[in-house]
Amino acid sequence: xxxxxxxxxxxxxxxxxxxxxxxxxxxxxxxxxxxxxxxxxxxxxxxxxxxxxxxxxxxxxxxxxxxxxxxxxxxxxxxxxxxxxxxxxxxxxxxxxxxxxxxxxxxxxxxxxxxxxxxxxxxxxxxxxxxxxxxxxxxxxxxxxxxxxxxxxxxxxxxxxxxxxxxxxxxxxxxxxxxxxxxxxxxxxxxxxxxxxxxxxxxxxxxxxxxxxxxxxxxxxxxxxxxxxxxxxxxxxxxxxxxxxxxxxxxxxxxxxxxxxxxxxxxxxxxxxxxxxxxxxxxxxxxxxxxxxxxxxxxxxxxxxxxxxxxxxxxxxxxxxxxxxxxxxxxxxxxxxxxxxxxxxxxxxxxxxxxxxxxxxxxxxxxxxxxxxxxxxxxxxxxxxxxxxxxxxxxxxxxxxxxxxxxxxxxxxxxxxxxxxxxxxxxxxxxxxxxxxxxxxxxxxxxxxxxxxxxxxxxxxxxxxxxxxxxxxxxxxxxxxxxxxxxxxxxxxxxxxxxxxxxxxxxxxxxxxxxxxxxxxxxxxxxxxxxxxxxxxxxxxxxxxxxxxxxxxxxxxxxxxxxxxxxxxxxxxxxxxxxxxxxxxxxx
Length: 588
Description:
Residues 42-433 form the AMP-dependent synthetase/ligase domain. Residues 1-32, 396-418 are annotated as: Disordered. Its EC number is 6.2.1.3. The structure is a single chain. By secondary structure, this protein is an alpha/beta fold. Helix content is 30%, strand content 24%. It has 3 domains: 39-380, Rossmann fold (3-Layer(aba) Sandwich); 394-471, Luciferase, domain 3 (Roll); 477-584, GMP Synthetase, Chain A, domain 3 (2-Layer Sandwich), CATH 3.30.300. The longest helix is centred in the first third of the chain and has 17 residues, at 64-80.
């Protein structure tokens, strides 16, 4: 009999997982095995809570029954474009009510969602579209140009443009037509002319015959998502997430928070295209039939305005969000006490941020940890007085961990020693899309379990709390987004004024890390302006990946085999920036 077949035990009586003794009240040792796809969660929510508000997009509300109807109609529209089980459909959308519908419509057909940042350049989109083999792209009007530029070198057959303003309340849609400067500015942030070659989402959906209610759902073992991540190489690759992975993580989230169905209001200020926002705001939120207040982007004024209209009870976010909201709420006298629980992820949570948030809300703010490869949450601090600020927390229910020698992933280190964190559980992905060698490097079979090598060096403290002490990976985490040095370097190296470059992350206050480029100037060039580098990178990189600072060096340190030693570069960069302190990013 395997461990998974063994009778369920209470945390206090399972010596194999000592960390479970630190679980919050009512948190189970294991979740029930997942037997249904993600799409069943929406169907159940619509049946059990048909009149409950499912989405609130800047004041435009939609019930669960209506969302379900729109999903079936949108699935019919995609079916008319030839989308079927296993086909990849790319979503290049900001957060919106349409994003929610499109996400579930793709899954309902048994097709595969491929999420993309809507601010990506054509080059970034081209690589991912070509790699995934997506045949249909549903894109925000302002992203359509980039998609069409990338399209000739991909398998994309149809590009469908989404008018974001169509999701607004009627009065706000009408206001956009007013011949005044404010309306024009707002319209320009939401809309764009749609070039020929793109279809229109609203027209396709309005003409479509809905998918039948009793149409087959996908299998729990079918592919649900290709979520792109750079991992350790810097080359974006698709993490293969099956329905059972995504559904399990949503179930684990509910077990951890203890939220009951139909009781929560979740603020979706995290982007849906990010694994953190996708799970907490799209799949977990629907599993618990929450009202999801959707923000097209994080903006303090907009969030506080929504708080007055529809108070939040649960907010997943990144530390800068909590810092800015807490400060603004204090200054403006906005009541945030409806927020009983909040979870911070994607970057280290400073203790001062947690304290400030808990002071202004009276609720709890705890740190969690995960990766795209874990759907994405693997560990979390308990939502109780036992939480331990500055740590990653404890493995989720049904999640196992071990700490191993980074040079020998089969050998566990002694208790209290530093080592690479490995996790196993129902949320761990199936591998990288069409990359068997990298999959073999990431996943290790041991003692009948499949373990994910996280690339993070940790120490396990008393009570089973995990503390991050270093990163094997060289990925830079800034503002909650992953920046892959090799991509930024490739873009800057093509600049005529730059001979060579190494990109590193340095402590960056509320950003987590700042992207800094150490550059060797081309022969005959005496200086390069930051403004010129920014203009160059804007054409080639996402905004969050732009270098924030430049440091000119005469040469780059290299290993004996010629590899640039980024850790040495980082130390040199910090030494040239004496006004920056290592403690600006506690725990990072």
